[in-house]
Amino acid sequence: MGFGDLKSNAGLQVLNEFLADKSYIEGYVPSQADVAVFEALSGAPPADLFHALRWYNHIKSYEKQASSLPVNFLTSLPGVKKPLGKYGPVNIEDTTDSTAKETKEDDDDDIDLFGSDDEEESEEAKRVREERLAQYESKKSKKPTLIAKSSLLLDVKPWDDETDMAKLEECVRSIQMDGLVWGASKLVPVGYGIKKLQVTCVVEDDKVGTDLLEEKITAFEDYVQSMDVAAFNKI
């Protein structure tokens, strides 16, 4: 707070503007604030600064009572006036008392000047993450689902050496199911003129099981004695 140099025209101008809507420097009664400012003047303000001149003439009437005027308008007790710089309009360069400064600094410490930026960055990061997740889910939905498959090598044995092996193979290959694909085959001797049918196939694990295959193949009981899985490999 402060008026600056009250002996200069600039200081008097500030004082005049300050008193444009006030009767006293502080409050509604004359106080040591008025005394401090009055004593800082070199004399009566010029006539064109009529607010300051009005105030000057009024306070001058209290000149003999100056020491007995209250410290401020809040008390009727006389006291010692404050430094001149403590009165008048707000002036950042003059600063307030240390308590006010500390309070302001504490308040400033509580203010997160970058809070809004962090929040915006957080929202931006969240938006980008959601977009990427959406893109990933979209690609994932379009990507063909991996189907578990297995390659089987089956040994299909006839009843004896008089079994028509061509007919037996025809019966085996006549088995058609979703998830079953027949592959190469050959006849393998097992002894005493008997040959077994060795045939490969690829199955989808979720659709075709070895038990189901065995049930269907051995259903041709006129030709098939048994079926065994000679090899089983995951694809």
Number of discrete helical segments: 7
The SSE order reads HHHHHEHEEHE
Class computed from helices, strands and strand pairing: alpha+beta
Give the termini separation. Answer: 87 Å
Protein name: Elongation factor 1-beta
Pfam family, one: EF1_GNE
Region (Disordered): 85-130
Biased composition (Acidic residues): 105-123
Describe the structure.
- The structure is a single chain.
- The chain is 37% helix and 19% strand.
- It is built from seven helices and four strands.
- The protein has helices at 9-18, 32-40, 50-60, 98-110, 115-142, 165-173, 210-217; strands spanning 149-158, 180-191, 194-204, 224-234.
- A four-stranded antiparallel sheet has the order 2-3-1-4, with helices on one face.
- Strand 2 and strand 3 form a beta hairpin.
- Belongs to the EF-1-beta/EF-1-delta family.
